[in-house]
Amino acid sequence: MKIRATLAVGIAAAAALALTACTGGAGGAAGGGGGAIDTSGELSGTIKFQTWSLKNEKFSPYFTDLITAFEKEHPKVTVEWVDQPGDGYQDKILSQANSNTLPDVLNLPPDIGYPLVAAGKLVDLAEADPKLEAQYNKGGWEAYSSYTGIKGTYGLPWYIGSDESWWNLDQLKPYGVTKENLPTTTDAWLDLAKKVATDSQGKVMLVSSMPGLDTFISAGIPVIDDKGAFVFNTPEAVAIVQKYADAYKAGAMPAEALSGTYSGNAEMYLQGKVAYSTGGSGFAGDLRTKAPDLVDVTAASARPGVPPLFVQGLNVASTSKNKAAALAFAEFATNEKNQVAFTKLAIGFAPGTANGGDEVVKAVESDANVPAAQAEAMKIMFDALPKAKATPYQWTGAMTDYLNQQMALAVRGDIPAKDALDKIVKNANDNRIDK
């Protein structure tokens, strides 16, 4: 089970427009609406529950028990569980929406949820049950509440995650870097990278990827305004890109990180090419299996600045003929007890609830099969989650590709940082999926 860091990389604008066109959702539709949904009475009927690539030996018993427990509480309700494979999930969701065959309860990250929200296909859960918000992680709740021009909340945070920083202290020790004085801001990290590269004559490198949208979010730079327009071509963002360029010039970044053959910063760390990487808490397991000699010299810390947030949620279809049972099941599946049980299995993830993280960490610490470094990284992640922020749902994989092209030119010094950012922001605004 991999962290879907880009959350399925976004929905293509054409697909979103096609859906809203056929469903009449254009023109600022505000989700499913419908007011409060009363789940306090006797529930009955059949609902369909759809997950995304979770039916396997590890998770199937959990979902079988979950459904059994819900049906025991509501003996007149039957829950039919359907799981869709990972590949082609976006297309499957759009097909279901267009044919009015959406399941009653479904698993959507915020970006895949957008065209359904715009087309009025999902229930506003904040309106359906006003008591819900306080029960969930703040950043996760906001991720389903920030659709441009649309009021409401259209998903319950289910399981969430973030990245940590991973440092090779053995390589950094000669330059005065210890676990106690690791940098905590983007600026401090880039300053350290340049210094270490200069002092080591390029032998120790601390920059293992180009700046991305998450870089600006981490630095506290606003990337999008309240109307959904991207706005990160600012002097503060220019300064960060220039710092990357300066670090690259000083030898702090492998040239391959700017090329099409780039294998990823985590892979370069495992190969010993760089002394810094980002990665989820599961990276400790990769160290143990792929680079055991690095386990004892590697330390994890919080990502500098604002940490990223990866969000998966459960949603209720507005087309459901049994909204009361569907909402009751979505709330049941995402309550603290059931989320804690799920994330004890999905090691490396956190419950999407406001609480429950301590219990998960204790369970991981007591598991002899989990590396101690992973348990420590999970503690760091849980501490960071209250302030973590998700990438705006409007940001797509195609935008990332264009950003990488321009950033490679800027970091190499081929074009000014300001020019690169202006082009990236213009491209993003020209291709927004919510326009």
UniProtKB/TrEMBL annotation:
It holds the Pfam family SBP_bac_1. Transmembrane segments: none annotated. The keyword Zinc does not apply. This is Cyclodextrin-binding protein. Coiled coil: none annotated. The keyword Membrane applies. Residues 1-26 form the signal peptide. Keywords: Cell membrane, Lipoprotein, Membrane, Palmitate, Signal.
